[in-house]
Amino acid sequence: MIQKIKGTMDILPEQTPLFRYIEQVMREEAEKYGFGEIRTPTFENTALFVRGVGDTTDVVQKEMYTFADRDENRSISLRPEGTASVVRALLENGRHVGAMPQKFYYIINCFRHEAPQAGRSREFFQFGTETFGAAAPAADANAIGLAAAVFRRLGLTSVRLHLNSIGCAECRPAYRKALTEYYGAHIGELCDTCHTRLAQNPLRLLDCKNPSCAALASAAPRTVDYLCPACREHFETLCSLLDAMGISYTVDPSIVRGLDYYTRTVFEFIAEGIAAQSTVCGGGRYDGLVESLGGPSLPGIGFAMGLTRVIMAMEQAGTASVALPHPRLYIAPLCPAAVPTAYALAERLRAAGSSCECDMMDRSLKAQMKYAGKIGAEYTLILGEEEIASGRAQLRNMREGTQEEVALEGFTLPC
Ligand code: ATP
Ligand code: MG
Hints:
Elements: H1 16-32, E1 36-37, E2 43-45, H2 46-53, H3 58-63, E3 66-68, E4 75-78, H4 83-92, E5 102-111, E6 123-132, H5 137-153, E7 160-165, H6 172-184, H7 192-200, H8 211-218, H9 229-245, E8 250-251, E9 263-270, E10 279-285, H10 289-292, E11 300-306, H11 307-317, E12 329-333, H12 339-351, E13 356-358, H13 365-374, E14 379-383, H14 385-390, E15 392-397, E16 402-407
Parallel strand pairs: 1-5, 7-8, 12-13, 12-14
Antiparallel strand pairs: 2-4, 3-4, 5-6, 6-11, 7-9, 9-10, 10-11, 14-15, 15-16
Adenosine-5'-triphosphate (ATP) is lined by residues 81, 112, 114, 119-121, 124, 126, 258, 277, 279-282, 304, 306, 308-309.
């Protein structure tokens, strides 16, 4: 038997209602905050991600699903994240010259070839938002406010916001120098990957999950101590906006984010204890990204939230149960002659808005009633030759165990 690819999942009918509920909350909240839904292709030119995500990142170097297009000799990749595609769509559709700010949200599947574990899969689902054209800290607060609102509505009161600023091109050189000196003095304790990172992009060392590197990171120089006056003011204004909005946070110098394009604000929402992977949402400001993808200099801020990790947090918080859909009526035809009447009635009731199931296996009444109970039908209606001849049948209320005679002509379900 052929099995599913490692790190992918089947979401079965018992599980989709929870996904759909969460997605609905995300859509409703995003639209309340003024974001419009965007849908972009599942695959793009590999170059988009190389430039948009950064060619020194693990995502680009090790994790992308990349292949040659069949009819043109070009490299294509399945999207490992959503931001680069949204920037491309912004530019390609001329939205960068439209009214600002431009605000988008999406719920997408993403693909990364990483080691599957709890909360980490190779196909996963993200709710993300991007805001373009707004440089002020208010845009950061609006995005963070949306993420916090989603967690609040899903009952995730113990998810904590960790906030940091990693500065801009102006603050970076002094910080890089301090970081390179610090790690240079501890070079023997670094993992192999971090040895390379130290020369290429020392900021990424702070993000390493290797225990010995992580221990070093906790005592490393902090970006917040190296901010230029403008970045400092941006960060302080954002903090006071969050205070005013009633959103609590912890300033956490260890938050640097794995992707290369971030500037100033970076943040993660962490659901402590759900698994080794406890970051349910990550985001930040990326003021250089639009330009690096060939557009004008246009500031941006966004985040992405992982749906499976949100579900793990909801399971932990005890808010993950949603009602499964069930039919209002099950119609049990007793003989082949009753089947057309049963199906005609079912069609009429569905057209009027009721969910209705009807036997399709020529089963005995006993088997049909057992099935009706199993699918949680609210009512059942039994149709035999006698009922069809008299135009009257017994409607059984399955919850209360009561029965009443109804006329088939013009029959509608009780509200
Ligand atoms: P991490 O390495 O901590 O999993 P990341 O920095 O690679 O996260 P982002 O690219 O910022 O994550 O993605 C945003 C969110 O998407 C994460 O916070 C997480 O909730 C989710 N996510 C990322 N990768 C995966 C994955 N492989 N499986 C499931 N969810 C993921
Ligand atoms: Mg990752």
